Amino acid sequence: MHQFRSAAPPWWLVPNLLALDAPIVAAVWQRFLAARFGVVVPAAATVALAATVWCIYLTDRWLDARRGALDADRHRAAARWPVTFACGALFAGSLAAVTAIQLPSEYPLYGLVIGLGVAVYLALIHAVAEGLQSFRGAKELLVAIGFAAGVALPLSIDGQPIAGWLPGVLAFAGVCWLNCRLIDRWESTGQSGPRSVWPDCLLGGVLLASCAGLPASVGVAVAGSSLGLLTIHLACRHRPRAARVLADVVLLFPLASWCLL
What we know:
- This protein has 261 residues and is mainly α.
- The chain has one domain (11-260).
- Helix content is 75%, strand content 0%.
- The chain contains 14 helices and no strands.
- Helix 2 crosses helix 8.
């Protein structure tokens, strides 16, 4: 039986343990991309997105802890305080539902489609978690696609030509995938054999190259986030806690891009 022998995590890790960083990243990128492509997003839509992301992340960690996946700090926290995580997920889900009903009908309808996809993801991941380990990066790719789809919801509803905004959303999904891949790499250190770094470097290179075809501000945000992730890998890969926190901090690069361009 797993025993919780590790020291209490530092205070600056708590927001990450409680999955508060992911909703912030989702909200920032939703507002940023919508503004850059001229789409007006109701405040309730951003609240619903943040609450939904928070609910999903808390639920995922709670389920991971229940099946005994306790290798990461966040999973050990969920195992220590299962009631807190379960109640937090229930609160976040209720908040998402209350705000969603205040939105135009297209938002709940599109959100339901994405929600069904997320439900399938959770069922797949937690039913065949061991089998997916042989497909390195598959789980992280699914997370990135679902995350980007939720962020892009207002863009798909607005009715603008998809060719205008889709490249930016795909680039954001790529940034999310790189983020998840690197986090998995840092947290898996010592648990498996050596892993080649070239796929992550290749992904980072593709993201940087894609910036040439994006609107300037979106390209700067994607490039800044990608370079930030690769820099963290080089500088902090042996300090997984610090790297884990910084990996989400650099995804807030749109705030700087927003001010500069």
